[in-house]
Design a protein that fits this description.
Layout lengths: L11 H9 L5 H25 L4 H8 L3 H8 L7 H12 L10
Helix pairs in contact: 3-4, 3-5
Length: 102
């Protein structure tokens, strides 16, 4: 049996550089920002499911609508920091911590 070569494999970072340009370029920064919004929606959805809540239940706990929770989870809506903090605090009884990466 012949062993396959990995010569055509590239790192994810290299792929992003080729697809969207180097970090700091407009296209790449737009991609990175969109990806962070996507991750936020996925994290919120996972936290909600781990807590055993439906979107309706979470929305009711934090004073918003199921539609808004769905839009956040599905990357269809930008979310204000104050709203995110309220969802985390009132919906999950948790505290949001932020960090800045330079």
């Amino acid at each position: 049996m012949k062993k396959k070569s990995n010569q055509n494999l590239t790192s994810f970072s290299s792929h992003l550089d080729r697809q969207y340009g180097k970090r700091g370029t407009r296209k790449r920064e737009q991609f990175e920002e969109g990806f962070e919004v996507f991750k936020l929606g996925v994290m919120l959805q996972e936290l909600r499911k781990e807590s055993g809540m439906t979107q309706d239940q979470l929305a009711e706990k934090c004073g918003t609508t199921k539609t808004y929770i769905s839009r956040i989870e599905n990357d269809a809506s930008d979310i204000r920091l104050s709203t995110l903090m309220r969802i985390i605090r009132e919906g999950f009884g948790a505290q949001l911590k932020l960090s800045v990466q330079i």
